[in-house]
Design goal:
The complex is a heterotrimer of chains A (about 750), B (about 80) and C (about 290). With about 750 residues, chain A is α+β, with helices and mostly antiparallel strands. Helices cover about 35% and strands about 25% of the residues of chain A. Chain B has a 3-stranded antiparallel β-sheet, covered by helices on one side. Classes of the chains: A alpha+beta (about 750), B alpha+beta (about 80), C alpha/beta (about 290).
Chain lengths: ~750, ~80, ~290
């Protein structure tokens, strides 16, 4: 006899017989309905319904599949996140509980930070996947009541030079994926009118079968207007606004909680399409409603669609809800109730408003041509009930659904061999040119110029800086969010997966160090950060070990710096039969610029100024560009220390006030050799220095190079040495790239830098 | 009635989309590709008393919205 | 008119997105400006206090963005909607000499509307478009600073307060290549020159006419912006509203060298503001 029994309703609804199901049948139900729940989880559900004395309907099981997915309830990561990363609060952090972190900007305003992955959809359909990633992150910021002001997009792909014939079956070429992702971000971000100001693009073979698309967004909101992601109070009305609900994006979260396989190609329904021209008025309408104070709560519809949004809004407020599902406006006919409930169609927001304000809110949506409907009401008990055409088809305790499950997954350090093969093999010039043309270093202009990075006209430091026509990459972008204030927000995104691959602990600590360096380099005070943790299959102990090491390192750095982690996202299962991605804890750092007229850029400003290196250079080559280019392996990933980092950062920020510092650049991939070349290429001003092998190419953390007036150079060095820190004049700006033991013309260096990436992209 | 309306660039007007597509196809190994042209198609379903009336209306649509006469030609094909 | 009589409308529909910064540029000069949704001119459900007519304003600005998603062609849907509800009013408005400015998508709208190049003073809106802003030669969206040479001899009311011959405004568009009818380019160019309708042309860092990337889209004759024969309708692809303050151009070295980096209290104004100031000065004498 079938376990699926058609209910006696004038629409398609099934009762599912789990009360009498054995393990085998439970497993089958989970698979057949695409729930992606384990036997153990199915048994918990079975017990719950046994107590209720009835079988669940399909919509109830589907809702649990969504709510208990890795994506929605962080069941594999929560245990370790709590242990290492949560609770690093500062007095200026306003909230970290909701979809995005809210942090004090000044007396009147707060900034909002969100960072998320959109990996699985982008690997299958790069254009739509990336576009909807942007859509989702904008909603996360918008639902706090904030105006989005900047987008950030760290991307990770396989190596571009791979032959088509050697691609594993079903895997798309990295050039195709990169072009599609960039086009998706471009077409969505540009159309909604939010500038894409920063990001990173990293190529490594481990991303061949799983590209990573992380998207971040920063917003600004008056503190008093921050909207909680929870229902207002009993009797408040739920309004669903935005795009129509369709079958697109059904099972997106369960999809994101499993490994990709060859078959994924066919599971297209898990990828949604975006409509930026619905989003743009939706942003305006929501902000107008926020401004007029008509809202009591707001949440975006992301993973799990209505099922998660309603549940989470009611749960966080300690209420229940009653929903009338037939009120939801649909894209297509004959959708089953459970499909409406879990659809992940884009451009939708869920609001709660007081009954007296409903008409005013609907008027504002109508004015912006945004469809909006009343779909339910907040109830006093903690039960969620869903009706469809008068039939009660869903009745569960909100706490049972929404609090989810939690695991303490086992982890195990994989066997590795310590290696140190790094040696000076000469040939500096050739190596440096190779570095400059490596796609990870080379100019990302082909990508960056396709993004509007200055719409809203508040971008102070753009992603490309320098003499017009020969710009290089800045360390952080800076935006000026408030009209009548000179204060700015600096934004950077960082991680070096070559390092995390060798040593997830020191690699992740290095990512934190680099994030702080980039913020400080533009003269901003590191203020908060968000993380997007992209890892493989957490059910494999070696992958879980990478995750735990990484979280431990970030937590250690953050706690001792201290710098609050205000928002985050975990993406597991970035793994295919061909392997897992390198551990990729992307960090998005936010800094406060006290006066944007004092920002510092990375290109040399004039000939004849002194060049000073701040920090200590050691023989540290693990995961370095030198190691990758030469093929000489090293396990010695650069170390760092949060107190030391803080000490250097504070002193450098102080030095910016005291001395005439013209430019500043952080030293990272390719070491000082590459940092100096970048400063020269984008200014057409060279330098004259004399550097040893280790000084040239080591990638030790906590270092910057600054250009300072000749007169101030020695005073600057003394300022650091007086505080027991290291600083050293290494030479002066001049006309060519003269490293002492070799030299290159600027044009030669520029050619490698400019063509290294674009030659693959046309 | 259903019309397919083809909007093409006039002969001689540069077609960056076509050019870029050709370049990409070459990169993918389709070395025999000689030319790629981008053409936009709108499928328009219309109620009308006669084909002639409908055609008149569709022509007006082309001139008022779908094509820019400075760079485009248009062509109507009735599919139903 | 008096300063406090000046009312600027920055028009929008879904997808326009540079309206706030355009409003701010005018507000910086102390005049009233507001964003107005096209619906406010005709829709019957709009609340009375939000209803508008064109005669409520002394200047209309079509801002940048992607009106209606730029589907079909950039700007064409906005222009079709304008034609259906505002054509007569707008023609009258232009004939009376009120200024109409189109930036980026706004330029595309004015071209599709037939308001630019605007050769006929008596019929300021042509029945069909007479030029096109076609897809960039690079086939990509291009967001970059451009050097513009101001070549107008005085006809264009929007650049009369511009102090410098060469200015830096950023562009950000995918469809901005000025294109005239095939085979009649020279004829068009001569008319534009005779009428003093050419306003900005793309040049390189040394002020010479040059190709990509200095001319970011492949525009004919390096044209970046033109006005109508009367000088009161102006469209340009670059964004002056993104270059009204020096800090908006901090990423570009040439300006930093020129302006003392360390001068915090000094004048923060950059060249873009002159476009908006020209409008205000013109209206003050109107």
């Amino acid at each position: 006899m079938s376990v699926y029994k058609r209910a006696n309703t004038p629409f398609e609804l099934y009762e599912i017989d789990i009360l009498n199901a054995d393990d085998e049948t439970l497993k089958r139900i989970s698979e057949e309905l695409g729930l992606n729940l384990s036997i153990n989880e199915m048994k918990i559900i079975q017990d719950y319904f046994k107590k209720k004395g009835r079988n669940p309907y399909d919509i109830e099981l589907q809702a649990l599949g969504q709510a208990w997915s890795e994506h929605c309830c962080y069941k594999s990561s929560k245990y370790y996140l709590k242990q290492h990363l949560f609770g690093i609060n500062s007095d200026y952090v306003i909230s970290t509980k909701d979809d995005a972190g809210v942090v004090e900007f000044d007396d009147e305003y707060a900034y909002v930070v969100a960072l998320e992955s959109h990996n699985h959809p982008s690997a299958i359909e790069p254009y739509g996947g990336a576009a909807t990633g942007i859509g989702g992150i904008l909603r996360d910021v918008l639902c706090m009541g904030a105006q989005p002001i900047a987008l950030i997009d760290p991307l990770f792909f396989g190596n571009l030079d791979i032959e088509h014939s050697t691609l594993p079956k079903g895997v798309k070429h990295p050039v195709y994926l990169l072009s599609g992702v960039v086009a998706g971000i471009r077409d969505y971000g540009n159309r909604v009118g939010i500038p894409t100001v920063a990001g990173m693009v990293f190529f490594d073979e481990s991303y061949l079968t799983n590209c990573l698309v992380n998207v971040g967004c920063v917003g600004i909101v008056k503190k008093e207007k921050v909207i909680p992601s929870k229902a207002g109070g009993e009797g408040d009305i739920f309004i669903l606004a935005g795009g129509a609900t369709g079958r697109d994006g059904i099972h997106g979260v369960t999809f994101a909680s499993a490994e990709l396989s060859e078959k994924s190609e066919e599971e297209r329904s898990a990828v949604q399409l975006g409509n930026p021209i619905m989003k743009e008025p939706l942003i305006h309408a929501c902000l107008e409603i926020v401004e007029s104070g008509l809202l009591t709560g707001m949440k975006d519809l992301g993973g799990g669609g209505l099922s998660c949004a309603v549940g989470e809004m009611a749960f966080s407020a300690g209420y229940g809800a009653e929903i009338w599902l037939e009120k939801v406006h649909l894209k297509e006919r004959n959708m089953k109730p459970w499909e409406i409930w879990v659809s992940e169609s884009q451009e939708r927001m869920l609001l709660t408003v007081k009954p007296k304000d409903v008409d005013d809110v609907l008027y504002i949506f109508k004015k912006w041509d945004v469809p909006a409907r009343v779909i339910g009401v907040v109830k006093g008990d903690k039960i969620l009930r869903v009706y469809y055409k008068g039939y009660l088809i869903y009745e569960m305790d909100i706490e049972f659904v929404t609090s989810g499950v939690e695991y303490c997954r086992v982890y195990k350090k994989p066997e590795t061999v310590e290696r140190e093969e790094i040696r000076d093999i000469g040939n500096y010039k050739k190596i440096l040119l190779k570095m400059l043309s490596h796609p990870n270093i080379a100019s990302k202009e082909w990508i960056i110029r396709q993004y509007d990075h200055e719409v809203r006209a508040s971008t102070v430091l753009k992603p490309l800086q320098g003499r017009i026509g020969r710009e290089g990459h800045g360390d952080s972008a800076v935006v000026k969010p408030v009209d009548d204030s000179w204060k700015g927000i600096a934004i950077t995104a960082d991680v070096n997966p070559w390092m995390t691959k060798i040593d997830p602990f020191w690699g992740s600590a290095s990512a934190f160090d680099e994030m702080v360096r980039n913020l400080v380099a533009v003269n901003s005070i590191p203020h908060s950060f968000a993380d997007c943790l992209n890892f493989g299959n957490p059910e494999k102990p070696e992958r879980m070990w990478e995750f735990v090491e990484s979280v431990r390192a970030i937590g250690w750095m953050a706690k001792n710096y201290p710098l609050p982690c205000v928002s985050g996202n975990v993406s597991f299962y970035n793994e295919s039969p061909y392997g897992s991605v390198a551990p990729t804890p992307t960090l998005m750092g936010i800094g406060i610029v006290e006066d944007i007229r004092r920002v510092i850029t990375m290109y040399f400003k004039k000939r004849g100024s002194a060049i000073v290196v701040i920090g200590e250079t050691n023989h540290e080559f693990g995961g370095s560009l030198y190691s990758v280019i030469t093929g000489l392996k090293s396990s010695n990933v650069p170390k760092t220390n949060p107190e030391k980092l803080k000490n250097y950062a504070s002193n450098l920020l102080d030095a910016f006030k005291r001395f005439k510092i013209y430019s500043c650049h952080d030293i990272s991939e390719g070491g000082l050799a590459v940092a100096l070349a970048e400063m020269a290429i984008s200014s057409n001003i060279g330098f004259d220095v004399n550097l040893s092998f280790v000084e040239l190419f080591s990638e030790s953390n906590t270092r910057w190079v600054v250009e300072v007036s000749k007169r101030d150079a020695n005073k600057l060095v003394e300022f650091f040495t007086d505080n027991s820190l290291k600083a050293k004049v290494i030479g002066f700006t001049d006309s060519e790239l003269n490293y002492g033991s070799f030299s290159i013309t600027i044009d030669e260096a520029e050619k490698s830098f400019k063509t290294g990436l674009s030659k693959y992209l046309g | 009635m259903i019309a397919s309306v083809y909007i093409e660039l006039k002969e001689g007007v540069t077609d960056p989309e076509g050019e870029a597509t050709k370049k990409a196809l070459h990169l993918l190994g389709f070395k025999n590709v000689k030319k790629v042209s981008s053409i936009k198609v709108f499928r328009i379903e219309i109620d009308s008393v006669s084909r002639d009336e409908a055609e008149k209306e569709v022509i007006e649509m082309c001139e008022k919205l779908l094509a820019n006469p400075v760079i485009h030609n248009y062509r109507i094909e009735w599919v139903d | 008119m008096e300063k406090d009589e000046i009312r600027i409308a920055v028009m929008r529909i879904e997808g326009t997105n540079c309206e706030d910064e355009s409003v701010k540029a005018f507000k910086a000069l102390g005049v009233y400006a507001e964003t107005v949704h096209l619906k406010q001119f005709y829709s019957d459900f709009i609340k009375e206090e939000e209803m508008r007519t064109i005669w409520d304003y002394s200047c209309i600005v079509f801002p940048g963005g992607f009106s209606a998603g730029d589907y079909v062609r950039a700007g064409v849907i906005f222009s079709a909607r304008l034609k259906s509800v505002l054509r007569k009013d707008l023609e009258e408005f232009i004939k009376e000499g009120y200024p109409v400015l189109g930036i980026c998508n706004g330029f595309q709208i004015l071209v599709e509307l037939g308001a630019l190049p605007g050769f006929d003073e008596d019929r300021p809106i042509a029945d069909k478009p007479e030029m096109a802003l076609s897809i960039n030669d690079s086939n990509r969206f291009e967001c970059r600073p451009t050097f513009l040479k101001h070549e107008n001899k005085g006809k264009c009311i929007f650049t009369r307060r511009l102090k410098r011959e060469i200015v830096v405004f950023p562009v950000a568009h995918a469809e901005g290549k000025v294109t005239f009818p095939m085979g009649r380019e020279e004829e068009y160019l001569n008319t534009l020159k005779e009428n003093d309708q050419i306003v900005f042309r793309y040049v390189d860092k040394d002020g010479n006419y040059a190709g990509y990337p200095w001319n970011p889209n492949g525009s004919y004759y390096n044209i970046a912006g033109i006005c109508n024969v009367k000088g009161n309708v102006f469209g340009l692809m670059p964004h002056p509203e993104r270059a009204i303050w020096k800090w908006q151009l901090y990423s570009d070295i040439d300006l930093l060298v020129e302006n003392d980096f360390w001068e915090l209290e000094g004048n923060n104004e950059a060249d873009g503001l002159a476009i908006f100031r020209s409008i205000v000065e013109y209206l003050l004498k109107f």
